[in-house]
Amino acid sequence: MLEILVLCTTLAQTIGKPATAEDIKRVDITVFADGKGLLPGKGTATQGLPIYKEKCAECHNEKGEGREAQYAALVGGVGTLASPKPVKTVGSYWPYATTVWDYINRAMPYEKPHTLTPDQVYAVTAVLLHWNGIISDTFELNEKTLPQVKMPNRDGFIPDARPNQKLKR
Questions:
Q1: 11, 75, 98, 141: most buried, per Cβ within 10 A?
Q2: Is the peptide bond before 109 cis (omega within 30 degrees of 0)?
Q3: pLDDT of 4-27, one tens digit each?
C-alpha cells in the first residue's frame, strides 16, 4: 500500500511538468531481442531452483505446470500451437529468451513486481529455459549469453503485412 501511495504522490508532483532525464531513466527498462537493455548479472537453473520454489511455485506450481484456470503453465506445449487447443508456454510460444527475462524482471513475482535482483531474474529465467529443454541446468545466463539462446519458436512469428489502417469509431 505504501508503494502505491509513493507512486501516486510522485505522479501528482510530476503531472504537467516535462520529464527529466532521471524520470525517464527510472522507467526506461526496455529489453530488446538482441539483449540491448539487459542488466548486468548472471544465474543458472541450479541457482534459480530455490528462488523459483520460494517466489514462483505458489502460482505456477512446482515444475512450472501452472494452475488450471488460475495461472499459466510455463513449460510444455511444444507442438500444440497449430492444434485446436494451443498451449502457449515459454518453451512453445515465446520467440526470444530476452523477452522471458524482461517479463520476469518487470512483472514477477505477481504480488511484488520489481523485487527480484538481476541475478535472481537470470536464475529464474534459466530454470524455465532448462525445464523446457532449451539449456542445461549449469548453463550460465548473463547479458551476453541470454540473447544467444535460440528459442524453439523464434521463427514462428511473421510480420503483419497488412497496411496501416485507421480505425473508425
A1: 141
A2: yes
A3: 545 555 655 667 788 888 877 777
C-alpha cell at 121: 531474474
* Cα 91 to Cα 83: distance, rounded to the nearest angstrom: 16
Which residue segments constitute the domains of the chain, with CATH numbers given?
Answer: 44-155 (1.10.760.10)
The predicted model scores a pTM of 0.81
Q: Are 126 and 135 in contact (CB under 8 A)?
A: yes
Helices marked H in 28-89:
45-55, 57-60
Cβ-in-10-Å burial (0-12, 13-18, 19+) of 46 comes to middle
By the 8 A CB rule, do 43 and 54 touch?
Answer: no
- Could you report the per-residue pLDDT of 132-162, keeping only the tens digit for each? 999 999 999 999 999 999 999 999 887 667 7
Burial code (b: 16+ CB inside 10 Å, e: under 16) for 106-115 equals eebbeeeeee
Indicate the SS3 state at residue 43. Answer: strand
Phi, psi of 74 (to 5 degrees): -110, -15
d(CA 105, CA 114): 6
